[in-house]
Amino acid sequence: MYLTRLIYASTISNDISPSAVADILDSANKHNKLNDVTGVLFFDDKYFLQCLEGSRYQTNETYSRLLLDSRHSDLVLLEFKDISVRSFPDWTMGFIPESVLSKSIYLKFSPQKSFDPYNLSSESAYKMLLELKEVLPE
Ligand code: FAD
């Protein structure tokens, strides 16, 4: 079974408060641990940008559940590709809060200053998440 990386963008639903993100992370960590899925979730109060790594079957299956989750909408798949190595092997689902994303980091990867994951190429989205992981405080 191939190792795969999936990256998507979505928008938090209107009736969900940003504090619901803690519940989402609990659920993600519980399921991902069982399924050998790792990755990272970035949230900026409006948009989610998430990277999932795992077997081709498990990343697909997880994304299918995500598509049904009413806590977010407008899911757009940015990348789904076979990979040889995980980038987030220690995180069942690492969380990167908005405070970690400075305008200068975002501008490096995007055509404009305000964060909009739908306007990121798959490569920029992936590289930005990698860079955010590096600057995340311990
Ligand atoms: P249950 O937990 O039994 O829930 C049943 C249904 O209700 C599901 O459709 C669920 O999506 C929905 N639901 C659950 N709680 C709420 C709530 N408080 N408000 C509204 N609807 C709710 N899951 C993973 O396994 N891995 C991940 O990495 C992951 N990342 C996520 C990232 C985001 C941005 C979001 C919004 C969700 C994420 N989830 C993740 C959760 C995922 O969407 C499913 O809710 C979860 O996997 C549980 O699925 P389940 O079939 O066991 O449903």
From TrEMBL:
<protein>
    <submittedName>
        <fullName>FAD-dependent sensor of blue light</fullName>
    </submittedName>
</protein>
<dbReference type="InterPro" id="IPR007024">
    <property type="entry name" value="BLUF_domain"/>
</dbReference>
<dbReference type="GO" id="GO:0071949">
    <property type="term" value="F:FAD binding"/>
</dbReference>
<feature type="domain" description="BLUF">
    <location>
        <begin position="3"/>
        <end position="94"/>
    </location>
</feature>
<dbReference type="Pfam" id="PF04940">
    <property type="entry name" value="BLUF"/>
</dbReference>
<dbReference type="GO" id="GO:0009882">
    <property type="term" value="F:blue light photoreceptor activity"/>
</dbReference>
<dbReference type="InterPro" id="IPR036046">
    <property type="entry name" value="Acylphosphatase-like_dom_sf"/>
</dbReference>
